[in-house]
Amino acid sequence: MKKCSDFVLNMDESVTLAAANRAKELKSEGRDIIDLTLGQPDFPTPENIGKVAIESIQNGKASYYTQAGGLPELKKAVQNYFASFYNYEIETNQVLITSGAKFGLYAFFQSVLDPGDEVIIPAPYWVSYVDQVKMAKGNPIIVQATQENHFKITVDQLDAVMSDKTKVLLLNSPSNPTGMIYSEEELRTLGNWAVEHDLLILADDIYCHLIYGDEKFTPISSLSEEIKKRTIVINGASKTYAMTGWRIGFAVGDEEIIAAMTKFASQTTSNPTAISQYATIEALNGDKTQVEFMRKTFESRLNTIYPLLSEIPGFEVIKPNGAFYLFPKVKKAMEMKGFTDVTAFTTALLEDTGVALVTGAGFGSSENVRLSYSSDLTSLKEAVQRIHSWMNSSN
Ligand code: PLP
């Protein structure tokens, strides 16, 4: 008997998890490993949030299923958050609380795509978009943004791939893996292009509070009524509040699409964990001191580590102003070390130096590696030092 479906057998494993697993394996063998693969804040969830979660267990509130679309009180908190941060007045029937932003994305694709519908995905992209579109029987259409163009796509590139099957333009700013942020003007151009072609916009804003220097986050949904009407925003608690383990995301936008996604969620997850939903009300409404502390810490790490990384022979890196990743181009470094494949390069780096990065291959880039600076500064400096020495040494 053939036990598993062709679809799952052909699906790629997340490269991030694969790299993290190999790092863990080597660590368990006693190797001195610095793991910079992680896509999550290295801070514990702020105490005030945890406290509310514990209370929700103690007072029995978290014992039961919640509404499939999420607790009304949490939807209200998301509504207030959108009014204050996005300057976007929404009704609560435009909100769906999801089991992580990842499930919000999945529910979106499942709810809007018919077989063969195309989703434009700018590369480098977050690892799960492509497989999720395929799971919904859609076609991912990759538009390659280059490092030379600061990892930003252009309207000319979009024109070149536009077809009568195109349904969605996906944007992720700040980006995982590049940390790149589109300016207001760039977003306006992309948004107007989507309006002109009558497309939906999927705005994955999960890193919107991790912004550094003079950079500013512009929600694409704020740029015009026409853009807003066709934009579904995906956001969540994971990155902003150091709550990756709690699995809470939210999707906001068109009432009809949110209703369809809610129906889909009701048949798949039933509801996101009640404890986490209560905790997220506190995250959104409560004290933000710790959130700002984490943001500032990321910024100071970026400012320390970026110049050191830039000095490594063969590493070409642009300074991002968002998220917590650096995405250096290592084409020259690969040549210097005799590699043609970036995954083999990343594996050799790990085996030789104990520094775990993620190959760019899974992000749609065959010349880059991703370094997460969600780690303490001592480890980060040591990691960069080891990579530097490795690049200086002969093969
Ligand atoms: N979108 C992007 C760009 C991400 O990097 C991630 C997590 O790494 C997610 C969505 C999913 O976040 P969540 O933990 O809320 O599922």
UniProtKB/TrEMBL annotation:
Known EC number: 2.6.1.-
Domain Aminotransferase class I/classII large: 32-387
Keywords from the UniProt entry: Aminotransferase, Pyridoxal phosphate, Transferase
Alphabetical list of InterPro entries matching this protein: Aminotransferase_I/II_large (IPR004839), AspAT/PAT-like (IPR050596), NHTrfase_class1_PyrdxlP-BS (IPR004838), PyrdxlP-dep_Trfase (IPR015424), PyrdxlP-dep_Trfase_major (IPR015421), PyrdxlP-dep_Trfase_small (IPR015422)
Coiled-coil regions listed: none
Enzyme class (EC, first level): transferase
Cofactor(s) the protein requires to work: pyridoxal 5'-phosphate
GO BP terms in the entry: amino acid metabolic process
Gene3D superfamilies tied to this protein: Aspartate Aminotransferase, domain 1 (3.90.1150.10), Type I PLP-dependent aspartate aminotransferase-like (Major domain) (3.40.640.10)
Molecular-function GO terms, alphabetical: pyridoxal phosphate binding; transaminase activity
Homology family: Belongs to the class-I pyridoxal-phosphate-dependent aminotransferase family.
Protein name per UniProt: Aminotransferase
Organism: Lactococcus fujiensis JCM 16395
